[in-house]
Amino acid sequence: MEIYKLLSCIVVNAVEKIQHNCSSLFFAINLFFAMCYYVAGVEGLRGVEATTEADKFLNAFFLSTQTLTTVGYGRINPGSHLASTIAAIESLIGLLGFALATGLLYGKFSRPQARVDFSKNAVISPFKEGTAFQFRIVNRIRNSQITDIEARITVAKFEMENGVRVRRFRPMELELSSINFFPLTWTINHPINENSPIYGMNYNDLKDVQAEFLVILNGFDDTFSQTVHKHFSYTVDELVYGAKFVSVFVENRSGVVVQDINKLNDYELVDIK
Fold it and tell me: Which of 1, 2, 92, 135 has the fewest CB atoms within 10 Å, counting from its CB?
């Protein structure tokens, strides 16, 4: 039920934003063409029943709405060549506009998106005989299976070249760069060894070079049978130097070991040699 509530909220919010923008655009277009009909002369429109200028303008406005949407009730219709020309242009704009809106809406709601959350912080943690740059991800949609998921990390940092401070992007090799099946959580490790672009750097060093860790995830969504992408980044301010993540595995009341994804961001401070 939680996933359906979440999807419902996302759809409702998106529809509300689209409706607000579309309503404003729809009103503006009809206001423009109503002005065109009014300036061209309301006497060029058949079926107008109005005695005041305001009523004449409202008749022109409602004719515009009927023409733009191709409804055409028929009480008011163009009676002159100029009015017919304006109506023909408006009809063309209406047809093209609604076709474009339909395509945009379809593309927005049919495009699969990976509902992957990242841990709030990345950590520099003890790892095997040394240390590693780590962060965790979780698949929030449990009934959506992502397979063949691949992770890539690049660190962006300033380096000195010929006395000039330039920003360079260095790939970071992962202990495990891909997994066949992503059921729930995954801790991604970059061992900090001699080949690492951040080897020998402490927290202050990383801050001095304004390091930022860029993450890209690619995977195959079985539900939509399409490749999905997700990107994220960690700045030095979001990096905890000397910490390790708390295990997400807990034992429930039945004695069964399960994963508690609410612990995704939990970590504890440790000493790094």
Answer: 1
pLDDT tens for 165-204 read 999 999 999 999 998 888 778 999 999 999 999 999 999 9
Judge whether 231 and 215 are in contact, CB under 8 Å: yes
* Same fold across 2-110 and 116-269: no
> Which uninterrupted H or E stretch holds 87?
helix 81-110
CATH superfamily of 116-269: G protein-activated inward rectifier potassium channel 1 (2.60.40.1400)
| Helix or strand (DSSP H, E) at 83 | helix 81-110
CB 227 within 8 Å of CB 164 = no
* Domain ranges, ordered by start, for the chain: 2-110, 116-269
Give the model confidence (pLDDT) of 34-46 as tens digits. Answer: 899 888 888 888 8
